Amino acid sequence: MDRKCIACGALFKPVRTITARDYSSGNTIYPVDFCPCGLGVTRINDQRESDAVNKSSYDNLTGRIDIYFNRLKKHFYKRHSEILGNIRKFSPGGKALLEVGSNLGYTAHMAVEKGYDVVACELNDRCRNFSELVFGLTVSKDLYKVKNRFDIVTLNDVLEHFPEPVRAIRKIHTLLVHDGIVFIQLPNWESSVAERHGGEWHWYNPPDHLFHFNINSMKKFLAGNGFSLLWMRTVDMAEDLPLFRLFPGRLKGRIFQVINYFFSVGLIENKKERGGLIQLIAKKNDD
Ligand SMILES: [Zn+2]
Q1: Which end of the chain, N or C, is less packed with Cβ atoms under 10 Å?
Q2: pTM of the full predicted structure?
Q3: Total domain count for the chain?
Q4: Ligand 1 center to 35 CA (angstroms)
């Protein structure tokens, strides 16, 4: 069956295919097909494969709590404070904020503490219950059932999981007020770190990650769905920097954890736009 590229709108005719490893649940290899515009699509037989991996990974509350409240606590605090600061710059009067894919609710709770009226949205039952119980957040299960209007919508490492990213971004468009903004963060397959690791790069993460963006495909995706880009950059985690290449994998992770335990290493801007994460803010166009 013919299908269109969700980023550029052209008929999806892959120009190259790589094989990426599912590192979270085993050693299964998945093909990822790339459109000339730079969008990568994980080839899966059945959406249930992806749902099952996603569920088992997010059901692990203990692991998540350890990351957010212990191992990378300072890192996440610094990282998200900076994100909220950037959001404030582009929406100085914005108050109503929707966080899509809110995980444990850690970042949504930070937004509450900064004075936002926050609605969160989280598919995973355990994560949702945790954020309601621990942070007292209002959390919806299904983005497509959210009805309020928002000044700001945030998607931190979540768009790449959606089976239908176009449906998601169009829904977000309808939820935003006039001049409302969306913040998006997701992995950049065109980064130096992705190039170094090839199909072993952790953030291909198939079948949990279904779509893979670079700067070009992200720009096309936004423009095609009623958004104007206001700000965009790519950033690295400290452990992805060349200095850390000197250390073997496990030691590298351990050193990174120790640094983050005592100090707060946030995200480091990559001036060549080849950082491992894309961050952007885009404004809803007038209807
Ligand atoms: Zn395309």
Answers
A1: N
A2: 0.93
A3: 1
A4: 5
